[in-house]
Amino acid sequence: MEHTWDLSFLYKGFEDEAFQADLARLPEAIAELQAILDSELPTAEKLEKLMDADEAQSLLMDRLFSFTGLTLATDANNGTAQQYEDKLSVIANDASLVGSAITRFVGGIDNLEELITRSGKLQSVAFALREMKKSAVHTIPAEIQPWILQMQLSGGSAFSQLRDKLDSTHTVEYRGETLPLPAVRGMAYDGDASVRKDAYEAEIASYRKMELPMSYCLNAIKMEARTIAKAKGYNTVLDMTLDQNRMDRETLDAMIGAIREYLPHFRRYLKAKAAYLGHKDGLPFYDLFAPVGKASKAYTIEEAREVLLREMGKFTPAMAEFMDNAFQQRWIDVYPREGKGGGAFCAGAHEYDRSLILTNFQGSFSDISTLAHELGHAWHNRCMAGLPYCLTGTPMPLAETASIFNETMLAHQVLKNATEEEKFTLMEASLMEVTQTCVDILSRYLFETEVIDTRADHAMTVDELKDCMLRAQEATYGDGLAKDVRHPYMWACKSHYYSSGYNFYNFPYAFGELFGKGVFAQYLKEGDAFVPKYNQLLRSCGSGSIAEVAASVGIDVRSADFWRASLEVVKGEIDAFCALVDKQ
Ligand SMILES: [Zn+2]
Question: What are phi and psi of 150, to 5 degrees?
Answer without folding.
Answer: -60, -45
